[in-house]
Amino acid sequence: LACSHHHCAFPLNRNELCIWNTATAQPLRLSGHHYSISALSFGSKTNPLLVCSASRERVIVWNLDECTQKVQEGLTPRGIVVGTLLGMVLHVRFNPDDRQVAVCAGNQIYMLSAKNEAILAELDGHLAPVTAAEFCTWEKSMLISVSEDRTFKARKLCLSLLFCFLKVWDYSTGQLIHQSGVLTAFPLLSLLIDEENKQIITGCAEGQLWIFSLISDHNYRCVAHINLKKEQEKFCNKVSKSGKKIGEGQNTSKICKTNNMRPEGSVETSLPILLVEHCDLLVCFHNEENISSALNTSYFWIGSSTGLLIINLANFELEAFLSYKDYSDLSIWFAGSCALTRKAVNGKVLCLISSMFEDMIAVLEVNLAALVRTQQHDFLLCGNEGSLSVIASSYFFPFLSKHYFRQIGHKCVKSTVKDQPLVFHNKIKSSGYTTAPQMTMFSPNNLKKKEVSKGKTSCKRKNKEYPLESSPPIKCEKEIFVTCKPTPICCIQYSGDGEMLACGLADKTVLIFNSSLTDTCNVFSGHDGAVNSVGWSHDKKWLVSASEDRTVRVWSVCNNEPALILGKEKFHKTVRFAQFYFIDAFILLCCGAEFRLLSFRLDTTKDDLKRYKQKSVCKLVQKFPMASTMEITSLSAVNDFYSYIVLTAGSNRTLEVFDLNAGCSIAVIPEVHTRSVHQICQNKGSSFSTQQPEAYNLFMTTAAGDGIKLWDLRTLR
Question: pLDDT class for 703, splitting at 50, 70, 90?
Answer without folding.
Answer: very high
